[in-house]
Specification:
With about 190 residues, the protein is of the alpha/beta class. The protein has six helices and seven strands. Strands 1, 2, 3, 4, 5, 6 and 7 form a seven-stranded mixed β-sheet that branches.
């Protein structure tokens, strides 16, 4: 079975990727002994995904490990906020990964504004030779004012999916993975891997 390194420490993302790309063995950053924080200094989802992928690829080469690298940059884009939080989704409140504050800020900033929103996932497959492929997936819905379902992952509990008629927080993994932005991007990447 082909092995690919996924450039993330996010347990939720790792779980999703493993469930969707079930035809390859996904290695995590922990598996390869990578413990550093990668600074996401890009101004687009693609730039940030490439920063992550190329950093991990360099690390692998320094250890004489020959694996392709998968990197994802994703976020929530709200129509009423000029597509914010976008690439700043994980740190919208000013603190990286503080999901409650991020959700609270989105809800507050959207008061009286268009609540239409979409999640975007930009996935890069970075090859051993330094070339890369990338694909983008989107899923549409709207932001609601109250949290519904599981509140542990990002904006899921306030994102009412057009496809599912419920929040991602209320959806099962199977339901979410059948329509999510990450699923749509990974499905296209899966074809390249095969």
């Amino acid at each position: 079975m082909k092995k690919i390194v996924f450039a993330s420490n996010n347990e939720h993302k790792i779980k999703e990727v493993k469930e969707i790309l079930n035809n390859v063995e996904i290695l995590t950053l922990k598996d390869i002994g990578y413990n550093e924080e990668i600074e996401e200094t890009g101004s687009t989802f693609l730039e940030n995904a490439l920063i992550k992928a190329s950093s991990i690829s360099k690390f692998l080469k320094s250890k004489n490990l020959n694996y392709d690298v998968l990197a994802d940059d994703s976020g929530l884009c709200c129509e009423g906020l000029n597509l914010e939080p976008g690439i700043y989704s994980a740190r919208y409140s000013g603190v990286h990964g503080y999901t409650q504050a991020n959700r609270d800020k989105v809800i507050a900033n959207l008061k009286g504004k268009d609540k239409k929103a979409y999640f975007v996932s930009l996935i890069v497959l970075y090859h051993i030779d330094g070339t890369y492929d990338y694909r983008e997936g989107k899923t549409y819905g709207k932001i609601i004012d109250e949290e519904r379902g599981n509140t542990s992952f990002g904006y899921d509990c306030i994102f009412l999916s057009d496809d599912l008629g419920k929040t991602f927080g209320e959806a099962t993994n199977i339901e979410k993975n059948s329509v999510s932005h990450r699923f749509r991007a990974l499905n296209q990447i899966k074809k390249i891997i095969e």
